[in-house]
Amino acid sequence: MNKTEEKSLKEQIIDAARKVLLAKGYRNFSLRKIAGEIDVSATSIYLHFENKDDLVHTLMEEAIARLNKQLEQKVAEVDDPISKLEALAREYVSFALKHPREYQVIYLISSDEMTRYPKEKFRKARKGYEIVTDVLKEGVESGLIAESRPRLAAYTFWAQLHGVMSVVLSKRLDNRIEQEEFIEEAIDHIIKGYQLRTSL
């Protein structure tokens, strides 16, 4: 098997794994089921992944890296901290809407259900929080944001956005409320929260 074929098989495994994980959940996720999806032996999967947790970690890592890359690109396009926060919020929402499967994989797994996420991968995963923390620190230094604990505020920022997108992607939004309007209103409230604190 040449490198092209190996890469193709690995990609097929990852695509099938994402599909099975989201459809069946972690507890019903197995390499045998992945193998059945793409008509290969489970042994073939072990050539690329040590076990099912290694495969799930790879799914999470790829999704997180993709999101973080887009966040970095978007924040580099604007100058002031408030505009950067809004750009980050909008890009986060855009990613969730355009790539719902990848987004759901990031948050799907409970830490007590699987092998602990490797430290070296967690450091990469934490990059998104660091981007927001840096923007908040920049705002504090420039006098535009009043945050005594930027890191805590960064986690709160992500938690608010995740709550918004969880409602949207799980289709639990009140059908009397238009989705785009809901998202716009939510982002506006989140960003204004930082601006209001600044004015106190």
What is the number of beta strands? 0
Please state the CA-atom Rg, rounded to the nearest Å: 19 Å
General form:
globular
Give me the CATH fold name of the largest domain: Tetracycline Repressor, domain 2
Tell me about the biggest sheet?
none
Summary keywords:
200 residues; Arc Repressor Mutant, subunit A; Tetracycline Repressor, domain 2; 2 domains; DNA-binding transcription factor activity
Fold and architecture overview:
- With 200 residues, this protein is mainly α.
- It folds into two domains: 1-49, Homeodomain-like (Arc Repressor Mutant, subunit A, Orthogonal Bundle), CATH 1.10.10; 57-199, Tetracycline Repressor, domain 2, CATH 1.10.357.
- It is 75% helix and 0% strand.
- The chain has ten helices and no strands.
- It has helices at residues 3-24, 31-38, 42-46, 52-75, 81-98, 100-108, 119-125, 127-142, 150-169, 179-199.
- Helix 1 crosses helix 2.
- Residues 30-49 bind DNA.
- One of its GO terms (molecular function) is DNA-binding transcription factor activity.
- Keywords: DNA-binding, Transcription, Transcription regulation.
- This is TetR/AcrR family transcriptional regulator.
- Residues 7-67 form the HTH tetR-type domain.
